[in-house]
């Protein structure tokens, strides 16, 4: 009988120890479960925050993409207009050069004609001398008129050349600007982190260029 009592006592003691171990394990499991629940709640909050930022990022990206697209279209139209105007100026320059050449030829012919007529064969008749003088004055007037026209055309030619140079510079600047904007659009479309930096710590993202 004593042996049976001792055996039951040992069993009770062993079961008590097992119960203590089970209770400790249960406490640890509850603590771990509470920690996991808190971590899960924090992760859900972060997910909601990132989801809101993702909407802002997509909206900002769409707006920026549209802005760059419109700017590229505008600059492309301006570039076409500048190129067209440049071609018109080239044609005008060519016409002015032809006019200058024509006036130079006419002036040269006039000067040669005057040199050939400096010593008239008959100088006795007073009326003839007067007629010759009047004719010379007329020729001089024509020469002065032609010379003024020549100078005006020369001035216009220099003006056109100056305008053309400005248009060429403006065209080159527009070409570079279109290339830069096209590159930035490509970076945006590809989501290149070197060009687009999104700050997800705030509700409003910022895009850096």
Automatic annotation (TrEMBL):
Pfam families per UniProt: CC149
Domain of life according to the entry: Eukaryota
Ranges in a coiled coil: 26-106
Keyword terms of this UniProt record: Coiled coil
Sequence similarity: Belongs to the CCDC149 family.
PANTHER family documented for this protein: COILED-COIL DOMAIN-CONTAINING PROTEIN 149 (PTHR21682:SF2)
Name of the featured protein: Uncharacterized protein
Source taxonomy: Eukaryota, Metazoa, Ecdysozoa, Nematoda, Chromadorea
